[in-house]
Amino acid sequence: MEVFLVVTHGRGSIDLYSIRLAQHLKIPKLHTDVYQRISALFGKSLADPSLVKGIELLLSFSKKLNEIPGIPHFPNHHLGRFAYFLNKPFIVTVHDIMRYLDILWNGTLISKPSSQDKLWLTMDFKAIKKAAKVIVPSNHTKKDLVKYLKVPEEKIEVIPHGVDDFKPRLGRRPCKEPYILYVGTEHPRKNLKTAFKAFKLLKEESPRFKDLKFVKVGRAGGKERCFREETLRIINSLGIAKDVIFISWVSKEELESYYTQAELFIFPSIYEGFGWPPLEAMQCNCPVIASNTTSIPEVLGDATILLSPLNVKAWKDAMEEVLTDESLRKELVEKGASHAKKFSWKKAAERTLKVYQEILESS
Fold first, then answer.
1. Calpha distance 106→126 (Å, rounded)
2. Judging by DSSP bridges, how do beta strands 213-217 and 244-247 pair with one another?
3. pLDDT for position 224
4. What is the C-alpha to C-alpha distance for residues 279 and 275, in angstroms, rounded to an integer?
5. Glycosyl transferase family domain: from which residue to which, for each copy (predicted)?
6. Angstrom distance (rounded) from CA 156 to CA 139
7. Are 27 and 53 in contact (CB under 8 A)?
8. SS3 (DSSP) at 305
9. Closest-CA residue to 155 (of 220, 201, 91)
10. Does a structural domain hold residue 37?
11. Are 222 and 89 contained in the same domain?
12. Where in the sequence is the domain holding 61, given as residue range(s)?
């Protein structure tokens, strides 16, 4: 018997995880678009015709997995619905439990789950309890699994994600003016409201920053709801719309250039299971300011300034300090560049392979 990796393809961070592991693991792989297909079901009601397609996909893909010899490793928890119906051991990587918490907390992190979402998400998270082994990227996610899903600690293996190799690059700029950079979605959990308020306060209190821009790179969000509408409402109410620049998907080379030429990178999230962008920024010699919640301190260590995510004045003061104190900036850049080297896909793959070996020995 052997382990095979289910590899999903797409531009999302969850897909990136499976693709990078696949590149570093010499094991059988099952390449599929199944995650993209189930993503299309997000936000639908139980009365929506898509439910029938979801059930058909559930039955057909679960049957296919049962017929493939070996133990599957599902690279994200949203594939748990397929794992739930398997009659053999399986491994699942849980990046976070945000959608489970959205059921409990009425959608405060991403969005309120629809009736169909609840059906699939409940199945996903029930499957986690059945897994032979659960891989998580941070101790914070491990604690969440133990606390909320009652998964036994001994079943959970913490393996930090690797980080793609980013390099300083002087290429295209998002604007001619100096700018603060944020990369990610506009989910409520990303807490852009605090960042925008701090940015407004910084410009109001310090005339020297009158030309400073706020550059936001990445999608507004997924199919859950229109997050851009709320973002625009916030920046319009603050009167900073002319200073905020939205950029959607960019190439890795462009992103390297954006990181490299930014005055600083901010990561104001309320909840993260891991978080790649600040580590990417560090590789490009960009100083980072981040929240002090969930997995963020664990992942970023002392290579950044950590702040309460809701303290607007603290964010404004930290932004100003990094923008004006060259010695602090140099210290953050040096610490960041060194810290980011601790994360590699080779290491993540090697530790994942050990989990496979443990499962095979106990099967």
1. 19
2. parallel
3. 59
4. 8
5. 174-337
6. 10
7. no
8. strand
9. 91
10. yes
11. no
12. 3-162+344-362
pLDDT at 293 (0 to 100): 97
Among 322, 298, 318, CA closest to 309: 318
What is the pairing mode between strands 264-267 and 244-247?
unpaired
Q: Residue 53 — pLDDT band, cuts 50, 70, 90?
A: very high
Contact 175, 245 (CB under 8 A): yes
Q: Say whether both 251 and 335 belong to one domain.
A: yes
Q: Give the H/E segment covering residue 31.
A: strand 29-32
Provide the CATH number for the domain around residue 52.
Answer: 3.40.50.2000
**What values do phi and psi take at 75, rounded to 5?**
-80, 0
Query: Which pLDDT value is given to residue 225?
Result: 67
Looking up tokens 């919640």 gives 293
| C-alpha to C-alpha distance for 93 and 274, rounded to whole angstroms | 13
Pairing of strands 156-158, 179-183: unpaired
Amino acid letter at 255? L
| Total domains present in the chain | 2
Q: What angle do CA 211, 261, 11 make, to 5 degrees?
A: 110
Provide the H-helix boundaries in the chain: 13-24, 34-39, 50-67, 80-83, 98-104, 115-130, 139-149, 192-205, 227-238, 252-261, 277-283, 296-300, 312-324, 326-340, 345-362
Q: How many CB atoms lie within 10 A of CB 103?
A: 16
